[in-house]
Amino acid sequence: MDERILWLEGESPVAQPALTWCVLAVDDDADFQRATAFALEELQVLGGRIELLQAFSYREASAVLARRPDIALVLLDVVMETDDAGLRLVRTLREVIGNSEAHIVLLTGEPGMAPVQEVMHEYDINDYWSKSELTADRLLTVLTAGLRSFAQLRSVTKARRGLQMIVESSNALFCSKSQHELAGKVLGEIGLLLDQPAEGLICMREDMAAPGGPLQGRVISATGRFQHARDTSLDSLDEPEVVNAVRSAFDLEAVVRRSRGLVLYLPRLQAGADYACYLETACVLDDTDLELLRVFSASISRGLYNVTLFRRLEEMAYQDELLKIPNRNALLRMLDLTLQDEQLRSEQVLVLIDIDNFSGANTAFGTGYGDFILGLVARRLRDAFASQVLVARVRDDLFAILGPQQEVRAAALVALFRRQGRPYELGQVHSLSSVTLRLADFVGSAHIVLQSALLTLKQAKSAGYDQHVIHDPGLQRTHAESYRMLLALRDAVEAGRISIELQPQLDLNSGAVIGVEALARWRQADGQSVPPLQFIPLAETTGYILPLGDLLLRLSLQAAKRLADAGYGGVRVAVNVSAAQLLQPDFVERFDAHLRAAEVRAQQVEVEITESVAMRNFDSVCSQLRALRERGVSVAIDDFGTGFSSLSYLRLLPADRLKIDRSFIMEIGAVADHQLIAEAVIQIAARVGMQVIAEGVETPLQADWVRQHGCHEAQGYLFGKPMPCDQLLNWLAERGQATA
Ligand code: C2E
Ligand code: CA
Ligand code: CA
C-alpha cells in the first residue's frame, strides 16, 4: 500500500487540542506543596502545560489516582502518615488501580536515604530524589524525563492493544463471504480499533477501463449519517466534500487526511477492484491511530481480495461454463434452501424445460449449432424473469426455472419460443417439452425433487414432442423408491451381485436343447432377489441400461464361451437387448468387440428385442439388426403378438425367429379364443418365413398343442427353469445331450 499520507488541498492540519500533562504531587508537607505549585506554574514541558493535582495523605492520593486515569506523573513523598505510606501508595496504584503507565518519582526527606530497594525494583521505579536536592531547575529536568518516558510507554501500550485488535478484526473480516458483508464489518471494526465512534462509507471503483474518464464509484457499505448512501453511486451523495475526498484518494492512490477523519485507499490485489474507505471520527486521530489504520488497511485489502477469490470459486462450482448461468449444483443448493423454508415451499414451483430433438440436431449440425440454440434459450429465459427467479442449466439441453408459481408458468415459458404461424422458432426444428412440479406437494431432498421431475419429464417425452405435464404428487413415493432402487442397483453392479441365469430352449421333435435364454438376476446381500421386471424398466427409464446392458452382454457371452468349451458350441445363447442399447450408433461395433473379447462365434449368439421396440423405431432398428445378421448373429422378436405389427412390416423385419408371448401359451387348454390367437401367430410366422418358438410352456398339454399347430421350438418350466451356468452344464450332461 502507498505509504503516503496526504492532506486534502485547501485543508490544513488543524491544531491538535492543547496538550496537558497531569501531574500529582503527594506530600503532607504544605511548604513543599506550595513551592512545587509555584515552580510548575506557567511551565511548558514537551510542548504541553502542566495541570497540577495535590494530595496531602495516602488516602487522599489514592482517591485522586482512582478518579484520574490520565495522571502522567506522580511526585511522591515516601514518608507521610506512616513510614511506608508512600510505598503503599505505589502498590495501590500499580496493583489495585491497575495503572502501570504513570511515571513515579519518589521523594525522601533526608538526602541519601534510599527507599526500600525491592519496591523500586518491583515497580520499575528508578527515579528518587531527596527534597532538598530538588531545585526548580532540577525539577524541570526530572519532569521532562519522566513525562517523556510516560508518553513512550503509553503509545507502546496503545499500539500493542491496537495490534491485538487488528489480529482479531482481521479474523472477523476473513470469515466474510460477500463484499457487502465484509465492508459492513470493516467500518464496525475500525470503530472498535480507534476506540471511538466512527462513521463512514466504503466505495468501490467500478470502471477501471476508461482512463481519464470520470470515476465511477459505488458505495458498497455505509454507517451512521451515510447509511442512506449504501448501494448508490458515489456521485449521488449530497456531500461534495466527502465525494471530493474519496475521489482524491482514488486519484492519488494514497491515504488522504481531513481535519476530522480520513480516507484510506485500499489498493487492488491481483485481479480484485480497488476501494476507498471514508471515515469520520469524533476525536482527532493521532499518529498511533494512523499507524494502526495503515496496518489494518492491509488486512482489509486482503479480506476484499479473499471475497473476490471466494466469489470466483463459487462461480466455478455453481456456474455453467458455457452459458454463464447457474448450474445443477446451484439449482440443488437453491432447491434445498427453498424446501427448508415453509413459506417459500408453499408458493414455489420448479419447471424443467427440455429441447426436443436436440441431441439429434447437435449431432447432425455440429456443436456450434447446439451452443447457439442453448445460448438462445438461456438468454430468453433469463431475460424473462426478475432476479429472484432462478434459471439454471441442469445438463445438456435441460433447463430449470425455480420461482413463485404466479410468475413461473410453463405455458408462458414455452410461449417465449413460439412464433406466429410456426409452432416454434427454435432453429425451426425444435419444440420444447416441460414438467411443472409444485414444491408444496413434496417431501424429501432436492435430489429427490429433481429426480422425480426428470422421471416425469422422461415419461412425458416418450409420448412424443411438445409435451407439457404437471407432476403428479401421487407418483412421488414411487419415484422416491425408484431413486433409492437405482442407487442400490448401481451398488449391486459394483459389488458383482448382478448375474445371469440360463433357460433352455428345446426342439420339440428331437428333444434336443438348441439354445438358452440369458436372464438377468439381482441377488441382494440378504439373499433376497429383485425381479428383473422391477429393475430392468427402471434402468431403461434412467439410462442406466447402457452400462448394465453391457455387463449383461459380457456375462452372457462368457456363458456362451463356457458352453462351447464344454462341447455345446451348437447351443445358441439368446440375449435380451433394450431399445436404448440397440439404438446406440456404435452398438454393432461394441457387440463385435465383446464377441472378440469373449472368443465367441457370432453364430452362437441370438439377440432378442421386443416387438414393440421394433415397431416404434422401425427404420433404425432394421438397419442395426441387418448389420448384426450380416455378422452371423441371429435375431428373435420377443413377446410376439402383443405389439400390433402388420404383416407388411413383419416381412421387412430382418429377424429369424418369433417368440410367441407367454400370455397366449398360458391360455391353451383354458380359453378357446386365445388358442385362436396362438394359432394365428404361428401361421403369420410361417407366412413371413420365420422360425417360431413358444415361451412359457408349463404343461405337456401346451407342448403338444403348439407342436401340433406347427411350432417346433419351446421354452418353459416344463423343460427347465432358468439356472446358473454350472447347473446348466450338469443338467445338459445328465440329459445326455450330445456334444457337438
Ligand atoms: P422375457 O424376455 O419375456 O423373459 C421370459 C420370462 O419368462 C423370464 O422371466 C422367465 O423366467 C419367464 N419364464 C420362462 N419360462 C416360464 C414358464 O414356464 N412359466 C412362467 N411363469 N415364466 C416363465 P424373468 O427372468 O423374470 O424376466 C422377465 C423379463 O425381464 C424378461 O422377459 C425381459 O423382458 C426382462 N429381462 C430379463 N433379463 C434381461 C436382460 O438381460 N436384458 C434385458 N434387456 N431384459 C431382461
Ligand atoms: Ca426374452
Ligand atoms: Ca418374452
Automatic annotation (TrEMBL):
Pfam families: DUF3369 (PF11849), EAL (PF00563), GGDEF (PF00990). Gene3D superfamilies: 3.30.70.270, 3.40.50.2300, EAL domain. Residues 482-736 form the EAL domain. Residues 346-473 form the GGDEF domain. This is Diguanylate cyclase (GGDEF) domain-containing protein. Residues 22-146 form the Response regulatory domain. The keyword Phosphoprotein applies. The modification 4-aspartylphosphate is found at residue 77. It comes from the Bacteria. Keywords: Phosphoprotein. Transmembrane segments: none annotated.
